[in-house]
Design a protein that fits this description.
heterotetramer; A alpha/beta; B alpha/beta; C mainly alpha; D alpha/beta; A: alpha/beta; Glutathione S-transferase Yfyf (Class Pi), Chain A, domain 2; Rossmann fold; four-stranded parallel β-sheet; 50% helix; globular; D: alpha/beta; FAD/NAD(P)-binding domain; 4 domains; five-stranded parallel β-sheet; 18 helices; 27% helix
């Protein structure tokens, strides 16, 4: 299976471990990621915060490029990127903005390709197929599945799962033989793009998420978002520095990408998946 | 052209002119509102004559036309506010009909400033006074109403519409002809149907014997809508029919079935895939393959583009100023001889006794006068509102060459725009006349 | 709501609630102040105006206070408020409009400069490179913050992370760039913000 | 040629001041068909009426026009006068030359001219009048009450006490409805069962009330005065006539752990059960979904134990037919399902509140059972999950109500009051407990209502927060309620032991299907439509069908009872005589010319038009036609307007009459 692939800046930057994991894991499942030629940044939070038109135009360019490359499906592993792409599709669905956007981005724009997030890619592969391919059931893992904000929100854009009590990631995790916990912060925000600019917020939110997962008996968190990973993994040390005293102990919560966990179950080594490049490597 | 100047908004002085205003009002709100104006001694001009009816639901378009026929200079129609109808929904039904009727009048070029719709409640004596005062004053300014029936000079200078049907296709027998003949032969031979209504060399072919199946043709000049023959008594008497339809003709079957005029189980429908027959109606074609037929013959890749697309006469008509439109129609109807071919040929005109033939009372003047012709065409077009499927038979049948379908197009568009309704497309859709929605527009109601 | 790019452009001065709502494709007067946005907001405690209070000000046409609030820069765009609003008011979308207007009209709250600077630096960065160059972004962002707020400390914040990132091969000294940067520049040029700049005095 | 008399009234000075009545009488005398034209000072006075009567007799008039005031004022007066003189009252017309002429114009000549026109118009109409007879519809002097909640009980008792027979149909095994399950009622805090159960018993024992419990209305046929009702009696597996209600069966039943419908799942009941001890009829029913005998021919203990031999495992549904003249619909309400799954696409659940996921998040009716002295916990207030006594209880108002995103923009009206009541009942049971209430507005309009809410706050210490709750989660056995206090402008987080959701009121299940059977309207939420929101609040668009209680809109007990009594009094009016007299000014269809397109049928607001067939004397089918049901037609004439061939016409406002009127204005 070949699918169009829009990595987004993070996966070609500090979250390149996510891309490594994806390629290793999906490759084994016979999914070839075909990177969109000459893609550009989707503008992320900065664009939709500061320039509405730009926040549609930048992803529209990528959508157009994917269509030009003939991709019926476009996989965006970063939920922010994928939500921005879906927003464009919504905007041009009524034809209202199609013409003008096409002009701005200098390319035809149909909006008929299907934008996928990582969970949907696994769903398309088929959970039964996934189960059958598992070599090492992840019995030791008790995962807190963390969806963050933009996999499910805004619901009228993403149209994905129940936006209050999603369960689709749990189904994928269960296919690897791992257990999941029911916890409270599945769809709470980690602070996302505020990592640099408003660290206080990020540490506060990350702390709540990490400690709630631990309190519900999880030994790891599974994410499908590069920003969530940064805030929960890279920032975990800082969280411990600030809140460790309060608890009297440090949190040591491994944060996996969903593809890491699937990859491990398929028998891929932690090194091949790039798990060794995470900040928190074991509990 | 003194009358025309009034149409452009330039008011003429009409010294001594006292307008005659006919008001159709409902018994429960507006009539009581007018009573209240009296009880509270609110003075207004004495030009209005009130006809009390039980409900706005009872106020028919014929009555509005009749008002002008007897010499009214303006007509008022008034009833209960939405939600207040004594009969719960009569005003909603009325509102819906008025939306359509105004479109028809506009297409005819009628001066809509002479028809006023209002909601006046039993508590709005003040509003009644205002409405009548303003209406009288406005009508006084507009001058006597003469447009419709007495404007010979305007007629003479009336413009015509761009004309010319498209160049017909080069005649071509279509491949499905053989299959059609074979299918009909079988249907008649095994007694599935008693009569086949199909296309023959000249006009329709009505067959009852299997051996005649060879008389059927199928080519790109099979223009007419054969469903109209289903209503004929003599054909009904023959027994179960098979009818040959194009995807566009098929829509009339949907309408007729909705109106309980045919029992679909007792008709065998032979649908022909169609690539166009080179008629103006083909420019609006939306379906190439029948959707509800019992059997579908032939294949259609796409509608054959018309070599020479016909001019959009409707757009040209609506581009005229209203007064020009009225003059245009007056000139057109001047040629009408009341032969009723338009009625005869229309698949939707199936009444056992047409209102035009009713004589107690006479709603439509039977004489081929300007008055009678307008009244007839208004009734014909309005009865087809949100029912006409656009087969264009009326225009083709008219011996005087009047493009009657233009009126139907206007109402079709009105139903589409206002109610999202396309006659004959969705068998499950609620009929436009006979239902209503709370959010139907009422920006024209005072 | 049907979207079109033919958006109203926020005029100079203080926009009224109707226009702000139109820009965000939402209807601000629908809000009946139930506070569910505030209740679910992960960062409401950090804001000077709770989200529902912000909307209330807009309903009263006091966008001036809203544009100067910390709220719009504290917002993390998590969409929880919009997703749960019983009246389908797109509160998160309103935040976007307000940020855009606040920036254009130079009304962003001073203590929030870091966020503003970061977002601006981010856009400048992709305008130049087509894709994000993280090190460059961080460098310029920090310089901006120091220049504008004098908070030298920001320079050393996270400094310890660099070697760690490098160790994990997450640091790219030579950033990836889009090839056709011309088109990126043209897209930026065509996308003027919907909020106009105030006239220079 | 007709012989018409015109009587022009001066109305003292009222008309004569601005209308030259002599001139009018003179001009009118010349109208075709007019044989006498008089004027008089006060036509409505006794001498005036005597004059009319005398002229009708002496001139053998076959139609009269009284030119005076509005027909809404005196048409009835003059119709009666004509009738005494032997003239059909429907041959009387009025010309309104006072309200619509003399009182609104000052210029005498033009007012006089207008008056003449108005009379000409009326003369044109009267010339085309035909004698009509009021329509007599026979009435079955019995009533059906659908629903045995407090509204149905009130309506049934009122009607039965007035001397008419009542058939009551209740879907559940017992009457009593929602009220039977309430603990105490606002604003008096009197025990709900104490005030309701005597009324239930009265229904059960009333000689004129025939109760079908555990039954549903299957089909409705007929029209006002003459309804035929098919009632499905669901198989009870207990012969009610033999059963003594001794209780041996349910005490011996081994399958005791079935969630009780009456307790909304807060308690358990056996497979054979009565819903609650005071049930009427106090006869058990077997739950066929769980009974071992019915499922796999096991057990059968109850049958063995029953001394009366009342258990009948072979019982089947039965359909019985009843004839009634009027129907009262009192089907009540149910609570909106807060959980994620919804019965309709237009509704959405509250995933964020965790109802159905967390055991200690309950709805308000469940709370009523938990706090009730007769409830499953025997009056000790314990929470469902672990039986602990909750020390912090959060009550949330407007759950579903006023929430467009969930599909119910309306206010459920009673939640503010019962939530206040809940906090008090809770405080009275758990003295060291704290009640927290999240609300948007407090709507406490009603006698003693606001005082009641204030008491909850001021005396019983309920803590009210003005704001909605965004999410409920569970941590360490506590429910974390994240709400807002919009007055303080801050988020609020409360660790609660129990959360009570004041769920929106929705119409009972199946009410839309019932409404379709009855041909009555309902709104987009399924609440039944009254005929007029102000003036006909208990009538429906179908003659003889009335509504009462929460099936029409959310309402509290006093309102439901008042409406039920109102509906009952409407029923009594209708059942007062053997025949109903209806105005004859209704539609009729010319079946010869009707093309049977049935546009009229779709249009008629009263469903008064039916499909019918024209047949020869020997029954040979000739054609289809539309036909007016005189029992249902109200005479609006909408059918006439939409009839393309004008085969429909309205008696008293016929096409012929209307055209004659218009044409008289030439």
């Amino acid at each position: 299976m070949n699918i169009g692939y829009y990595p987004g800046c993070a996966l070609h930057g500090s979250s390149n471990d996510y891309e490594q994991s994806l390629r290793a894991c999906l490759g084994l499942l016979d999914v070839q990621l075909q990177e969109i030629k000459d893609w550009i940044c989707c503008g992320a939070t900065a664009a939709h915060s500061l320039n509405h038109k730009l926040s549609l135009a930048l992803p529209a360019r990528n959508l157009a490029l994917a269509e030009r490359d003939g991709h019926k499906q476009l996989f965006a592993p970063c939920p922010l990127c994928s939500m921005q792409l879906l927003k464009v599709q919504k905007a041009i669905a009524g034809n209202g903005a199609r013409g003008e956007l096409a002009q701005i981005v200098e390319a035809d724009l149909r909006g008929d390709s299907q934008v996928l997030n990582l969970i949907q890619v696994f769903q398309n592969i088929g959970l039964d197929r996934l189960k059958a391919a598992v070599k090492i059931p992840q019995k030791e893992i008790t995962a807190a599945c963390y969806y963050g904000c933009l996999l499910t929100r805004p619901p009228d854009v993403t149209h994905f799962d129940d936006f209050e009590q999603p369960t689709s990631m749990e189904a994928v995790v269960a296919a690897t033989g791992a257990k999941t916990v029911d916890w409270n912060y599945k769809t709470e925000c980690c602070g996302a793009g505020m990592t640099m600019a408003n660290e206080d917020t990020v540490l506060d939110l990350a702390h709540k998420i990490l400690s709630n997962a631990a309190a519900h008996g999880a030994n790891c968190i599974v994410v499908a978002c590069p920003m969530c990973h940064v805030n929960l993994d890279m920032k975990q040390e800082a969280v411990n520095r600030r809140y460790g005293k309060k608890h009297g102990k440090k949190l040591g919560m491994v944060v996996y990408y969903l593809s890491d966990l699937v990859g491990l179950a398929l028998g891929i080594s932690a090194e091949q998946l790039g798990i060794d490049r995470h900040f928190v490597t074991k509990a | 052209m003194s009358d025309d100047s009034t149409r452009d908004g330039t008011m003429t002085e009409n010294k001594g002119f006292e307008p005659k205003i006919v008001a159709y009002v409902c018994n429960w709100c507006t009539y009581l509102g007018a009573d209240l104006a009296g009880t509270t001694r609110l003075e207004y001009p004495p030009n209005v004559r009130i006809i009390r009816l039980p409900c706005t639901g009872r106020i028919d378009f014929n009555l509005i036309v009749k008002g002008f026929e007897i010499g009214a200079d303006a007509v008022l129609v008034s009833g209960c506010h939405p939600g207040d109808c004594h009969y719960t929904a009569g005003n909603y039904h009325a509102r819906r009909r008025w939306i359509l009727f105004r479109e028809l009048l506009d297409t005819l070029g009628f001066d809509l400033r002479r028809i006023h719709f209002t909601w006046i409640s039993a508590a709005e004596g003040k509003k009644w006074q205002q409405v009548i005062t303003e209406m009288t004053e406005q009508t006084r300014q507009l001058g006597p109403y003469t447009d419709l029936y007495a404007n010979g000079s305007a007629q003479d200078s009336a413009n015509d519409l761009p004309s010319g049907p498209p160049t017909p296709f080069e005649f071509k027998t279509l491949p499905a002809e053989g299959a059609l003949r074979e299918s009909c032969r079988k249907l008649l031979a095994d007694g599935t149907v008693k009569v086949v209504i199909g296309y023959g060399q000249r006009g329709p072919a009505i067959l009852t014997r299997a051996e005649d199946a060879g008389r059927l043709v199928w080519n790109n000049r099979c223009v007419s809508n054969l469903t109209t023959y289903l209503k004929r008594k003599e054909i009904k008497a023959l027994g179960k029919p098979a009818v040959v339809v194009k995807p566009c003709d098929e829509k009339s079957l949907v309408v007729l079935e909705k109106e309980s005029q045919l029992d679909r189980k007792n008709i065998h429908v032979i649908g022909m895939a169609c690539e166009g027959v080179g008629e103006p109606k083909c420019t609006f074609c939306t379906a190439r393959t029948p959707r509800f037929a019992d059997e579908t013959l032939g294949e259609a890749a796409g509608p054959a583009s018309l070599a020479d697309p016909p001019p959009n006469r409707f757009a040209a008509l609506m581009a005229m100023a209203p007064a020009e439109r009225m003059a245009f129609w007056a000139k057109q109807f001047d040629r009408c001889v009341k032969c009723y071919a338009c009625r005869q040929v229309c698949p939707m005109c199936y009444c056992e006794r047409c209102i035009a033939d009713k004589n107690r009372p006479i709603a439509i003047d039977p004489a081929p006068s300007a008055k009678g012709n307008f009244a007839w065409q208004i009734a014909r077009a309005f009865h087809l509102a949100a029912r006409c499927v656009g087969c264009g038979e009326c225009s083709r049948a008219c011996p005087a060459g009047i493009d009657l379908a233009l009126l139907n197009i206007a109402l079709h568009k009105a139903a589409q725009v206002n109610f999202g309704y396309d006659a004959g497309v969705d068998p499950a859709a609620e009929p436009v006349v006979g239902s209503y929605a709370l959010q139907d527009k009422e920006d024209f109601i005072g | 709501m049907e979207q079109s790019l033919e958006d109203n452009v926020l005029p100079q001065g203080t926009p009224d609630s109707f226009l702000l709502g139109a820009l965000a494709h939402t209807h601000l007067q629908d809000c009946y102040q139930c506070g569910k946005c505030t209740a679910g907001c992960p960062v409401a405690v950090r804001m000077d105006l709770a989200p529902n209070q912000l909307i209330r000000l807009l309903q009263l046409d006091d966008s001036e206070t809203a544009l100067r609030s910390s709220t719009i820069w504290e917002c993390v765009s998590c969409q929880t408020c919009s997703a749960r609003c019983p009246k389908s008011v797109d509160c998160a979308g309103v935040m976007d409009v307000l940020r855009e207007a606040s920036l254009a009209q130079h009304k962003a709250a001073k203590p929030q400069h870091a966020v503003v600077a970061f977002q601006k630096a981010f856009l400048d960065n992709i305008r130049r490179n087509g894709r994000l160059a993280e090190l460059e972004l961080i460098g310029l962002y920090k310089a901006d913050v120091v220049w504008n707020t004098g908070r030298i400390g920001v320079l050393f914040k996270d400094a310890g992370l660099a070697p760690q990132l490098n160790k994990r091969k997450k640091l790219h000294l030579l950033p990836e760039k889009a090839k056709d940067r011309g088109v990126v520049e043209r897209i930026f040029a065509r996308c003027s913000a919907r909020c106009s700049e105030p006239e220079k005095k | 040629m007709s012989k018409i008399g015109v009587f022009t009234c001066w109305c003292g000075e009222n008309i004569a001041r601005t209308v030259d009545v002599d001139e009018v009488a003179k001009r009118v005398a010349g109208f075709p068909g007019v044989v006498c034209s008089l004027n008089y000072k006060y036509m409505c006075s006794d001498p005036g009426q005597a004059m009319v009567r005398e002229k009708i007799a002496s001139e053998k008039l076959d139609g009269i026009v009284v030119a005076s005031c509005s027909p809404h004022m005196h048409l009835k007066t003059f119709r009666k006068a004509a009738q005494t003189a032997g003239l059909n009252p429907y041959l009387v017309e009025m010309a309104n030359i006072r309200e619509q002429c003399s009182w609104v114009h000052h210029d005498k000549p033009s007012a006089t001219a207008k008056a003449i026109d108005i009379i000409r118009l009326s003369v044109a109409k009267v010339r085309n009048d035909v004698p009509l007879r009021p329509i007599q519809v026979p009435v079955t002097r019995r009533a059906l009450v659908i629903g045995g909640g407090v509204a149905g009980i009130q309506a049934a008792l009122d009607i039965a006490d007035a001397g008419h027979e009542v058939v009551m149909v209740e879907r559940e095994p017992s009457i009593g409805g929602k009220m039977a399950g309430l603990s105490e009622t606002f604003p008096t805090l009197d025990c709900s069962q104490c005030i309701l159960t005597p009324r239930m018993v009265e229904v059960g024992q009333h000689p004129r009330i025939k109760l079908y419990s555990y039954s549903e209305v299957e089909a409705v046929d007929g029209f006002v005065g003459n309804f035929k009702i098919k009632i499905r009696q669901k198989a009870r597996y207990v012969d009610v006539s033999k059963c003594t209600g001794c209780g041996d069966c349910w005490s011996v039943c081994p399958l005791k752990k079935n969630p009780s419908e009456f307790d909304y799942g807060m308690g358990m009941r056996p497979a054979i059960y009565i819903p609650f001890p005071q049930a009427v009829p106090a006869r058990p029913v077997i739950d066929k979904k769980v009974c071992a005998k019915l499922i796999r021919n096991g057990c059968g203990l109850c049958e063995k134990k029953c001394k009366a031999g009342a258990i009948d495992f072979k019982d089947e549904d039965r359909v019985v037919e009843e004839s009634v003249g009027c129907i009262v619909v009192a089907t009540g309400y149910k609570l909106y399902n807060i959980a994620k799954e919804q019965p309709k696409a237009s509704l959405a659940g509250y995933g964020e509140y965790g109802y159905g996921k967390y055991k200690d998040v309950i709805d308000s009716l469940q709370f009523e059972r938990l706090i009730s002295a007769s409830g499953p916990t025997g009056g000790v207030f314990k929470r469902p999950s672990d039986g602990a006594i909750p020390k912090n209880v959060v009550f949330i108002s407007c759950v579903g109500s006023r929430d467009n995103a969930k599909g119910m923009p309306y206010c459920s009206k009673i939640c503010c009051m019962y939530t206040a009541k809940h906090t008090m009942l809770y405080k009275h049971k758990v003295h060291d407990g704290q009640a927290h209430v999240f609300y948007m507005d407090i709507r406490a309009g009603g006698k003693g209502y606001d005082e009641f809410v204030r008491r909850a706050i001021e005396q019983d210490g309920a803590r009210y927060y003005r704001g909605r709750v965004s999410k409920i989660t569970q941590e360490n056995g506590k429910l974390i309620v994240r709400g807002a206090d919009t007055l303080a402008g801050t988020p609020v987080e409360i660790e609660a032991d129990l959360v009570v959701l004041a769920s929106a009121m929705r119409p009972a299940d199946g009410v839309e299907e019932l409404a379709q059977k009855l041909n009555i309207g309902y709104d987009e939420f399924g609440f039944l439509m009254e005929s007029h929101p102000k003036l006909r609040p208990v009538e429906t668009n179908t003659g003889g069908v009335f509504i009462a209680g929460a099936c029409q809109a959310p309402k509290d007990i006093p309102e439901a009872v008042a409406q039920a009594s109102a509906a009952a009094s409407k029923v009594q009016v209708m059942l007062a005589a053997d025949e109903l007299t209806r105005e004859p000014e209704i539609a009729a269809i010319n079946e010869q010319t009707c093309a049977a397109c049935y546009t009229c049928l779709h249009t008629c607001p009263y469903h008064a038009i039916e499909r019918a067939e024209v047949r020869t004397g020997r029954g040979v089918f000739i054609k289809n036609t539309a036909r007016v049901n005189a029992g249902l037609c109200m005479g609006c004439g909408t059918c006439v307007s939409v009839c393309p061939s004008k085969s429909a016409d309205l008696q008293g406002f016929s096409e012929q009459q209307i055209y004659a009127m218009v044409e008289s204005l030439v």
